[in-house]
Amino acid sequence: MPEPRVTVVVVTWQGAALLSDCLDSLAKQTCPHRLLVIDNASTDGTIELLRDRYPHAEVRTLPRNTGFAGGAQAGLAAADTEYIALLNNDASADPAWLAALVDALDADPDLAAVTGRMLLADTPELINNAGVGIRADGYGYDVGLGQPDGPAYAFRREVFGFSGGAAALRTEAARRVGGFATPFFLYYEDTDLAWRLRLAGRRVAYEPAAVVVHQHSATADQSSPAFAFHNERNRLLMLTRCAPARLAAIQLTRFPLTTASLLVQRLRGRRPAGHQFRTGLRLRVLGSYLRLLPWALRTRRQIGRAATRSRAAVAADWLGADP
Question: What residues contact 151, with CB distance under 8 A and at least 6 apart?
Answer without folding.
Answer: none
